[in-house]
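Researcher: Please generate the 3D structure of the following complex. Treat every line as part of one assembly.
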Amino acid sequence: MSPAEQSQKKRSARNGWLLSAPALTLLFIAASGPLLIVLVYSFLTPGQYGNVIWKFSLDGWTGILFTRDIFDGTTNLADAHLTIFWRSVKLSLMTTALTFALGFPTAWFIATRPPTQRAMWLFLITIPFWTNLLIRTFAINEVIRNEGLMNTVLIGIGLISEPIRLINTDTAVFIGMAYVYLPLMVLPLFAAIDRFDMKLLEAGYDLYASRMQVLRHVILPIVKPGIVAGSILVFVPSLGAYVTPRVLGGGKNMMIGNFIELQFGQGRNWPLGAALSMALLLIVMAALLVYVRASTKGSNPHG
Amino acid sequence: MAERSFEVSRLPGFATIAIAVFVLLYLPIATLVVFSFNSGPSIAVWQGWSLHWYSDAWNNEAVKGATFRSLIIATAASAIATTVATMAALGTTRRAAFGGQTFIYVVINQPLMVPEIVTAVALLILFGVIKQATGYQGLAYLIIAHAAFCTPFAYLPIRARLEGMDLSLETAASDLYANPWQTFRHVTLPLLAPGIAAGAMLAFVISLDDVVITEFVKSGGQDTLPTYMLGQMRRAITPEVNAISTALLGLTIVLLTLFFILTRKKN
Amino acid sequence: MKRTLTALAFLAATTSLAQAEGVLNLYNWGNYTGPDLLAKFEAETGIKVTVTDYDSNDTALAKIEAGGHGFDLVVPSANYVPIFIEKSLTVELDLSKLPNHGNIAPEWMDVDWDAGRKHSIPWQWGSTGVAVNTSVYDGDINTSAIFLEVPDALKGKINVVPEMNDIVNLAIMYVGGEPCSEDTEVLKKARDVLLAAKPDWISMDYGATEKLSNNDWAASVNWNGSSMRARVNNGSVAYGYPKEGYPVFMDSAMLLRDARNVEEAYKFLDFIMVPENAAMISAFARYANGIAGSEAFMPEDMKDAPEVVTPEEHKAAGVFLPTCSPVAQQYMTAIWTELMK
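Model: Done. Output below.
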């Protein structure tokens, strides 16, 4: 590498840092920085009525995997914690898959409208989300209730004779989560598809590729960054979601978000809550890095 | 294109799915709007038409204040988040890999990775100290907190747009002796605009929805619409909230229609 | 640098002075403070009240402990009152500034958590029982068996509110223990009864007023005020007081140590002890208050509502939840986690 190239590379890196500096500052003040407090708290002793006592303890961390049985005093693997964790992961994966299955065609549809209409369709996607999450979830509830809109209409047109019971089922949670997180999938996908050059499709069909082949070998690789962005935006927040599962699922089963909240609330065990969230952070971060590495490998033409 | 019997950009079934998605998306919203006109106190049992929830909401200082506060915070926070996210996206894509890129990526996306309650408790402790030390208890805390967790939502779509965006136009511009700023302003920015729009919209919507962090950061008299609703949830939600939501939707649609008419004319 | 600091300090001082000019910051449960009450207070005193909402005692406690919140008054539940006192977050009231203090009903004056009412002024009180649609189930409803050994008619149709303290203590009392028990034998029985009953519940959610009214649920563990509203909408809903023991709660207003508007706060506390005003509080949120003589001003539909006026034969089973010890709290959390996993 010539000295000129090297200094150019250095300059490029410096500009990269400079451009990222405002975002980093903001996040250090109001997100990552305060998280250090949580890290410290995870090594302290729970206070009597919430909060912490400044005495070092590892109980928060061991409490993630092991619990002392309150009745016989033995220490066991905390299967309740693992069950809760696994349920959250499973639901988030399913939500991500469904939002992708619905979001990709939708984003494609928007991106292939005439340019003057695209903004309108994009707004149509976001307008429902101007209403608050809680009221939106209640509205979904009204639609799928036993005596709600969906069942009334289906019975009215004679498609079914008995109402379909969806309310307070896992299916209801799944539908609701996909509804709530759909724009988080559609918008990044749109941003990626929109810059896709439709001439590539011409080329693909000229080479007698089938539709499926074109989709797999021409479209998907190019919109991959959008898929990655969309999946992260849906998967990670749905891991911590609790309003939707509670309202639509009836709240009989805890999600990881509720469980951590319990520790900071009525459970009065802030160190365990802090340790749980640190562990969650580490796991998600590791998964994310693996995912991003694997999915961007070789697909970035500009290195 | 005319020689082929089909439109290349059409993928079979996609339009059907998309239309179905739009219909499903608006179904709950439609019930929400209908029940805002309910004369009874329920959001599920219909008792006849009435506008009284609108007058109730209009006369309720707490609701009005909370609505305006939500809009102010969402506007300010999404503006900040989109600006810093655009800069960071430009700084981390389309250049030779440099040490620390992954670090920047992780820091920017960190708010996504912890449940809100954790950030909320951490901010409560930190801002509590600052509030006591400075005596300032204004909206800035909420705006900063919202801007921070909105940043990844703005960053990811912009970055997705930038990645692999065609460099040739920008190279052409600088070949024509445009300075970097001119190149950015007249070439990069217009190309990037859809990504920025998508990111800004996401950030705005995310800020508008936030409950937990707001609940812990707010000072006296700083309820937003979501925290106001959270307080109602344990007891009973009345169509008053439907009325506010409908009014907000109506306002949005009017503003957007105006915007489209104006831009259409300019073209 | 020094000058800026002085300027800042001056600014801070003047803004807080400006704030002390006829305003009051009330930190209260959401949907608990009627606008008409505040309008009347402002008309009488010229003091403008700003209400900020919370939705759990723990959130309120954490926020006030963190400081810099700007609130003057908070309204915690009875079992949190001793915590606020012990942590010195609130102050003892100067009773000479509260001429209406004597209006507190005798049974609410010498309560366990605040004898003589020197720290807390009654806001509202109520109970946690079971609301049942009697057209679905017409057996005895004054028992926790409604949700702990669910009758066949209610299986898959009953909801349980997701309130750890209420639910676990109801179960403890059902198996014959004391609230906040540390007796592992009792706790084990309570856990088993909860775990066995859970499959029969449809959900663990709020919003009972709505869902009992429109027949989504046939029964629910529920608060009395909400059950009354459900009965008004749906005549077959009745409220049961479990004879094995049911929790009674009372929320009371307390003056914060770092309040900036102390005089205004006293005026407000005195104001809510006027019977007519206390009745306004009840009329808005549909719970009883603790002020003697307020009955005369109560709305007609509340005066003899069996949910609001506890029938004589059910009074004895009502229990105030004490402030649980940290050990008892740990047990409860463990049972709750087991239940919700």
